Structure formats: C-alpha cells, structure tokens
Amino acid sequence: MHIGLIGLGRMGGNMRDRLRNAGHGVTGYDQNQEISDVPGIADLVAALPEQQRIVWVMVPAGEITDTVVAQVAEHMRAGDVIIDGGNSKFSDDTRRAAELGERGIGYVDAGVSGGIWGRENGYGLMVGGPDETIATLMPIFEALRPEGLAAEGFVHAGPVGAGHYAKMVHNGIEYGVMQAYAEGYEILAARDDLIDDVGAIFTAWQRGTVVRSWLLELLVKALNEDPDLDDIRGFVADSGEGRWTVQEAVERAVPAPVISAALFARFDSRQEDSPAMKAVAALRQQFGGHATKAAADG
Fold first, then answer.
1. Among 17, 22, 108, 128, which residue carries the largest CB count within 10 Å?
2. CB 65 within 8 A of CB 85
3. Does the active-site annotation cover 74?
4. Spatial contact of 68 and 19, defined as CB atoms under 8 Å apart
C-alpha cells in the first residue's frame, strides 16, 4: 500500500521508517522541510494512488489536529480515508467522522503506543472505525504492530472513537503504574542508611518478580544513566489523557483513586511552593500553635 503521513516527529518519523521497511510506500509531510518528502499537504495528497487516498495524521491533539484534518479533507474525495493517530479525545473523533462522512470521506481513530522505541519493537494499536474500512487498512496496521500474536498488539476496539477511548484509559493506567514505581523509588532512596543501591534493586526486579514490565526496564535505564536523577527536575507535564480518564470515571461513577492520585501528583510537581500547603501550615499554626517555616527570601 501507499499512504500519506503527516507529522514526522519522534513517533511519526519512526512510523514512516517502519512502514517503508515493511515494503509500503509512504509520502510524508512535516512543517520541518528538512525531513519532509513534499512541500505541502496538497502535494502529499497528489502523490497518493488515485483509487483510494489514505492519509495518517500524527500531530498534537486538539485544534492542531482539527486544522490538519480539515486541510487534508480539502484535497480528498468520497472513498478516501483519514486516520487520526494522535492522542485526540474520543468525542472529537465522533464529530470529525460526522463532518467527513457528509463528504463521503472515511475516518478512523487510532490509539498508538510504543513511543520512540516503536520503530524496532512495533506499536501497540487500538483502532476505532467501520469494519470494512478497518479491513482495508489492515496491511498498514499489520506492518506497524509488534511481531507475534496479532491480538497481543492490535485491537479493533469498536466504532469511531473506541480506539482513542481505549488509548485514553491505557494512558491513565500508565500514569498510575509510573507513579507507583516513582513512590517506591523515593521510599528506597530515603533509607540510605539501609539500602546501598536503589538502582540495583530495580534492576533485580526485572526478572521473576510480579512487578516486572517495560516501564520498569526504562526506569532501570534512566537510573543507570543518572543514578540519583540529579540531572532531572521533578516537573511532570500531562498531555490530557489522564485528565480525560479521571473525568470519564467521574461521569460513570467509577472509583479510580490510583489514576486520580497520579494525575494530582503531576499537578503538585509543578509547584515550587504550594499555596494549598501554605494554607494548611497557617491553619495548623492558628488552631494549635504548630511551628511554621518562614518563606525563603528573594
């Protein structure tokens, strides 16, 4: 097959390489012309096979995705397909599919996991869309997914929106798992009178233990490179999926204390001096005369 791919950053560029290595044609476009195959979106669509043009969009979620999808659609016709492989909110997929459907253009949402390692290891794929459209796209999905049993690296999760919904929950779980490893790291590091090598403990957990995982392997790699994490500031961003997972849990009355706490921990990481904790300290001083610490000068 021959598809267009828009967004050749850390994941998109590697996806282009993996698809080409599997024998597929890929015409890529990126605002950075040094890595782009064509100068513009119109040129990308024009380079695709006439019988059915397929364009995979791999750009940041929200307004940027809306803009790019609209620009691509201007050059497409009935029977063509747009795939959104970014981390869009599932409700945006429903709206886009309806808008494109009025023009006969197909739409598929694809949750993609694998990060910068996907080129070699393959990408976990969670897709949403009509059965017939998904069947047409299977050669592309087969090339991108990890080797081995298909069901362990690819799922047609349901209609449009289901792929990104599954990826949203996947990322919410990821928040919780990472936070658990992080808290374990801090507890171990706090007992430097007893624990000689925190990194060695995490390394030993990689085989035979119930907490082994790829995320654990990545933490071991990070600790090997920077044993005390001195080169990293404890500031953690969030890209939206964790928030949406918690919002869905609230809407569905589903208890999600671990994912919620992991999300709030990220918010806490961005505060140099928490206003909330200042208020708590002031209250303890007021009702109990408890000692407080003066604010730092400057």
1. 128
2. no
3. no
4. no
Give the dihedral sign, CA 123/126/129/132: positive
d(CA 1, CA 73): 20
Rounded (10°) angle between helices 90-101 and 162-190? 160
3-class SS at 148?
A: coil
From 102, 142, 147, 167, active-site residue = 167
Mean predicted lDDT score pLDDT of the chain: 94
Q: What does residue 97 show for φ and ψ, rounded to 5 degrees? A: -60, -40
Tell me the two tokens of residue 36: 């782009």
pLDDT tens per residue, range 67-93: 999 999 999 999 999 999 999 999 999
167 carries an active-site annotation? yes
Coil/strand/helix, residue 176: helix
Taking the C-alpha atoms of residue 223 and residue 231, their distance in angstroms, rounded to an integer, is: 11
Residue 59 neighbours by CB under 8 Å, 6+ apart: 6, 7, 65, 68, 86
Angle between helices 162-190 and 257-269 (to 10 degrees): 70
Q: How far is CA 271 from the centre of its chain?
A: 24
In this structure, the number of other CB atoms found within 10 A of the CB of residue 40 comes to 14
Tell whether pTM > 0.70.
yes
Out of 174, 183, 217, 272, the active site residue is 174
- The DSSP bridge pattern shows strands 124-128 and 106-113 to be antiparallel
Q: How many helices (H) and strands (E) does the chain have?
A: 12, 7
Report which of 63, 239, 80, 223 is spatially closest to residue 168, judged by C-alpha positions. 239
- pLDDT score for 40: 96
Instruction: For tokens 């290595």, name the residue.
Output: 21
